[in-house]
Amino acid sequence: METKNKNIKTFAQHLDKRYGATGTKERTEFEIKAKSFAIGELIKEERKLAQMTQEQLAEKIGAKKSFISRIENGHSDIQLSTLYKLIEFGLGRKINFTIK
User: Fold this and answer.
1) Residues 27 and 20 sit within 8 Å (Cβ to Cβ)
2) Residue 62, H or E segment
3) What is the pTM of this model?
4) Picking from 10-19, 23-32, 42-51, which range would have the lowest pLDDT averaged per residue?
5) What angle do CA 57, 63, 64 make, to 5 degrees?
6) DSSP letter at 18?
7) Is 58 in a helix, a strand, or coil?
8) How far, rounded to the nearest angstrom, does the alpha carbon of residue 12 sit from its chain's CA centroid?
9) Residue ranges of the alpha helices (H) in the chain?
């Protein structure tokens, strides 16, 4: 199978071509949405490992099931305090941040 963009070798190069260089408004917006989606996927995975439903997790932290659903689907910005509450109190796990 032949590809259209033979010069693109990495995902970062693909993003450069599609959204512009790092720091452009479009690229930044895409990266924020992508990271929001990734956080939602991590929460969903940990919730399933804990054998909890969205409703059970929501009850545990005093939220609504629809809120958990929006986070897991990357459709809601999440504050750090809420992330902490979800992971540490809701799922009994620990958060460790690394800044590079």
Assistant:
1) yes
2) none
3) 0.73
4) 10-19
5) 90
6) H
7) helix
8) 18
9) 11-19, 25-49, 54-61, 65-72, 80-84
